[in-house]
Write a structure and sequence with these properties.
alpha+beta
Amino acid sequence: MRLFPLARVVVVVPILFIPLFFEVYAFLFVGLWFLIQIFQGALELLLPSSGGGVAWWAHVGGFVAGLTLGPLLVRSEQRYRAYYPDEGVLGFDTRGAGMTCHLP
């Protein structure tokens, strides 16, 4: 979500046996997911149960760690290796202009 903020995710909502497909923005989906994790973790703390709710809080911690440390894992464009013209032979176009096929 941090690296591709305008990405969209296809979500499946099954109603009985009919799957409904929706396309939502990643930040909306992840935000809702994060709120559910917080709510379930808080609910586990308040209600007596056999588990301690550790998994809910592990998800929250992983989300926060990924959100803060994720940008550190991105390589700058200067560190990418150069592509050569002969690498585009089997359909990979280095300009990103769609699939082309130049088979002999």
